Amino acid sequence: MRALWGTPLPSLNKRMQLATWNVNSLKVRLPQVLAWLEANPVDALCLQELKLDHDKFPLEAFTAIGYHAGWAGQKTYNGVAVLSRQPGADITRNIPGFEDHQQRVLATTLPYGDSTIRVISAYCPNGQEVGSEKYLYKLAWFKAFEAWLITEKQQHPNIAVLGDYNIAPVDADVHNPDKWIGQILVSEPERAAFQSLLALGFTDAFRLFEQAPKSFSWWDYRMNGFKRNAGMRIDHVLLSESLVPSCTACVIDKGPRALEQPSDHTPVIATLTIR
User: Fold this and answer.
1) What does the buried/exposed string (b/e) look like for 67-91 if buried means 16 or more CB atoms within 10 Å of the residue's CB?
2) How far, CA to CA in Å, does 116 sit from each of 90, 242, 275?
3) Pairing of strands 115-123, 105-112
4) Element (DSSP H or E) covering residue 26
5) Is 264 a catalytic residue?
6) pLDDT means per 10 residues in the chain (275 residues)?
7) CATH assignment, 15-273
């Protein structure tokens, strides 16, 4: 099967595909998401920036094409969801013990062969500007996120953490590193927060494979960012140790970014072999 937007995906035999996509308003992008799922029937799609009230989530549209959903909505901002072929269990919304009204995290447990996999959709804070109040909130949020993931790993050996991390981990993930030195998304404290997650035993699935240079998942709407490929790789799939040997591919599907009225992000898809 070939994806509608041009990215070839593996066949459907004994594998699980997990994807993440910051849709930047599900209300606006719903037709695109439905079309993408029809062409790319992944086992789970993690969405970020729903930007709609919890009770406005279009559940019926997804059940009509064979998907279950868990979500955490918030009017105008934030909001996350996990769409899945199989119903999820043990859903957690937000980071337990971290007081925060912003809907940024949803975790669910899905079948994975004879076992289960914990799938987490995360919309990590942007931070606005280095040194700002929102930047300090971002760093505090990542500390709380890291602490929670430690407890999650103790309970779930198979964990995939997908989402918009709002961090470009290394200079290769930035279109013009020199221009961005010390700025938001690439500052040393932000990159250190990302490395702390890897130190817990997670692996950046995209970097398990040889990738084309200048591979990005986000492009600014301004100044023809997408046409110039002036982007960043800030959307990631992190896998726990047990899942790394099963990962056979991780790709960025740039097709949706070329549509009319696109999100400024595009899907990232990881493929796991079910052993």
Assistant:
1) bbbbbbbbeeebbbbbbbbeebeee
2) 11, 12, 12
3) antiparallel
4) helix 26-39
5) no
6) 42 81 98 98 98 97 98 96 98 96 98 96 98 98 98 97 98 97 97 98 98 98 95 98 98 98 98 92
7) 3.60.10.10
pTM: 0.94
| Contact yes or no for 35/23 (Cβ under 8 A) | no
Q: What was the pLDDT predicted at 233?
A: 98
- Residue among 112, 123, 135, 165 flagged as catalytic: 123
Q: Tell me if 104 sits within 8 A of 146, measured CB to CB.
A: no
pLDDT of residue 107: 98
The rounded radius of gyration (Å) of the Cα atoms in the chain is: 17
Residue of 43, 67, 164, 173 marked catalytic: 164
**Residue among 120, 114, 89 at smallest CA distance from 18:** 120
13/252 Cα distance (integer angstroms): 21
Please state the domain extents for the chain.
15-273
The predicted-structure confidence for 170-218, as pLDDT tens digits, reads as follows: 999 999 999 999 999 999 999 999 999 999 999 999 999 999 999 999 9
pLDDT value of residue 10: 42
Nearest to 251 by CA among 264, 273, 233, 267: 267
Q: How far apart are CA 265 and CA 179, in angstroms?
A: 21
Task: Classify 8 as helix, strand or coil.
Answer: strand
In single-letter form, the type of residue at position 188 comes to: E
Could you tell me which of 169, 265, 172, 173 has the C-alpha nearest to residue 221?
A: 265
d(CA 50, CA 192): 28
